[in-house]
Amino acid sequence: MKRLNLNDVVGFVEANIGDFHKRRLENLQSLRLIKVLQRKNPYLFKAKNIYTPFDLVKGLMDAHLSSQEETIFGEFLEELAIFVCGKVYDGKKSTAEGIDLEFEKDGMVYIVAIKSGPNWGNSSQVKRMKDNFKQAQRRLRQNRSMANIVAVNGCCYGRDKKPDKGDYQKLCGQTFWEFISGNERLYLELIEPLGHRAKEKNEEFYLAYGQILTLFTQEFLIDFCTNGLIEWEKLVQFNSATNWNNPRKGS
User: Are 181 and 203 in contact, with CB atoms under 8 Å apart?
Assistant: First the structure.
């Protein structure tokens, strides 16, 4: 085990956090109103008593972007965790399916599936992870005679009061970051570097956000409104009818 130098972590974050902001902006700029309307539940927005086209379009955009940002940032945190473990325990990106990290610690071999938070999947997804753990353990035992291989579901935030899941350990938040770094305060020390250039990047993002929101609202007014009022039947037909002619096909 090597002592983690926080300056290395800061350097990694500052060198790579820009990619998160870049992908976040690219995802926004690639949005098309028609695609967002097809993917979101129109009944939900009616049930929320949304009346104005602006509020509806903004709600659709925000729901879509939130989901995408969680995915993009989760990938960044996975890379950060692998980097940190590499510095302390010579951890490396795993080549096994569904496994993100492999390393040795205190005479044990650990295989880790990294997720953003503790509530990341349904029962079938958890089963898939457990199957991946078993396959990786069989493969590693062929190369490491009688190796004690421990499977871990590592979650970058949150907590789990019962980490022992039988087939694997579930380590969340502070416990996970300390597990891969030996530093019980790392989960707190990550906060400051993650804000690197955030103000500048967010200003760029929200300038583009405002332009696209205005454009989408104008499109929605033309295609799904009469006299400024939402035609809910037309919207639901577009989203769910068996046959529908796209008003902006190819846009």
Answer: no
